[in-house]
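If you are new to this repository, start here. Below is one unmodified record pulled from the training split, so you can see the exact layout before writing a loader.
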Amino acid sequence: MNSRHLVRVALGTGLLLVSLIAAGCGGVGPGGREVGGACQTDRDCARTCFAGDSHYPGGICSARCTSDAQCPGGTACVDDLGGICAVLCAGANSCSGFGRGFQCDSENRRGAPGEVTVCRVP
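And here is the target side for that same chain:
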């Protein structure tokens, strides 16, 4: 390998690492400020803190929606709280990081027929 190739590999790896870190800091998931993070006020979230619902005890960062098109990747628009983006459930343990009681649960879709499985307290 020549030095130019090594520099390109190092830069590519560094950019990938920065992208992964940025995605985890404020996006979607248990610590996500956009959708999924626990919250007490709107200041804790990129958009809105929804609190006082038994399906999301302790509050959850999310956004109002009328269809999936208004939600970030990895989420779906569900009927909870009049239409919010909720984190999609990828498997049996994918909701454990959200807190006690969270699990994969089916909920009616908003703006589309049928149900979708999301992380919430049933």
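Two things worth knowing about this chain: The chain has one domain: 27-120. The chain is about 20% helix and 20% strand.
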